[in-house]
């Protein structure tokens, strides 16, 4: 199964970026559309993950995602890849 994610990077809350061992990271959460795919074939929406004590704050929808192909045995968690460019700065 392949998933593609489109986000509006101008809506990112840069205070939620965090430094890791191999780079700077951001946690995104995918929410399924309750009624299935929308008229554009999007399977759901994308939001930033917020700290536990800040869950009441409404995060803007950053974009949407699509799923291509079928997974066998139910849905599996999306896989992410991380580049090992720890020297590269965030461009914004």
Report the span from N to C terminus: 32 Å
Give the % helix: under 10%
The helix tally amounts to: 0
The helix/strand series, from N terminus to C terminus, equals EEEEEE
- Lateral strand order in the biggest sheet: 1-6-5-4
Unreliable stretches, pLDDT < 50, 5 or more residues?
72-84
How many structural domains does the protein architecture include? 1
Oligomeric status of the shown chains? single chain
Rg over CA atoms: 15 Å
Q: Which outline best applies?
A: globular
| Extended strand count | 6
Can you describe what's shown?
With 92 residues, the chain is mostly beta strands. The chain has one domain. The protein has strands spanning 2-7, 18-19, 24-25, 28-32, 44-48, 63-68. The radius of gyration is 15 Å and the shape is globular. It starts with a strand and ends in a 24-residue tail after the last strand.
Write the layout of secondary structure elements.
Layout: E1 2-7, E2 18-19, E3 24-25, E4 28-32, E5 44-48, E6 63-68
Note the main attributes of this structure.
92 residues; 28% strand; 4-stranded antiparallel β-sheet; mainly beta
Brief overview:
The protein is mainly beta. It has strands spanning 2-7, 18-19, 24-25, 28-32, 44-48, 63-68.
């Amino acid at each position: 199964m392949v998933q593609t994610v489109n986000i509006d990077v101008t809506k990112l809350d840069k205070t939620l970026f965090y430094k890791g061992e191999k780079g700077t990271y951001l946690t995104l959460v995918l929410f399924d559309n309750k009624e299935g795919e929308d008229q554009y074939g999007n399977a759901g929406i994308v939001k930033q993950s917020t700290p536990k004590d800040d869950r009441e704050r409404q995060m803007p929808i950053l974009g949407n995602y699509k799923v291509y192909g079928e997974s066998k045995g139910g849905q599996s968690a999306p896989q992410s890849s991380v580049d090992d460019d720890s020297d590269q700065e965030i461009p914004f």
